[in-house]
What does this fold into?
Amino acid sequence: MDTRKDVILADLKDTHNPLMPTQTTEEGHISPLSLAESKRVLRKIDMCIIPVMGFCYMLQYVDKLTLSYSTLLGLLKDLARKSLRRIDSATNQYWSLVSLEHGRADLGL
It folds into this structure.
């Protein structure tokens, strides 16, 4: 029997890392997670990913809403631009918002 394989199996069994499964088969493969462990991992992933996705969807909604309101209120006419150049206006609006938010964060407001 390969001694290196025994060392690897012994190393896996002796670890106390909670993120690493500790059960191995005789062939050296890691066994599937138990139902409780898989639920715990899924919940941890959900608690990280779902808020980020919600925040991204909210930003997209606000972006589309402000662009549509600005078009209705005559921003394109004021900027003397055609509808194809509307994206430049959105980019300028976004970067100004980012710079103002950064300044607001520095002030601690």
Remarks:
- Residues 35-72 form the longest helix (38 residues).
- The chain is about 70% helix and 0% strand.
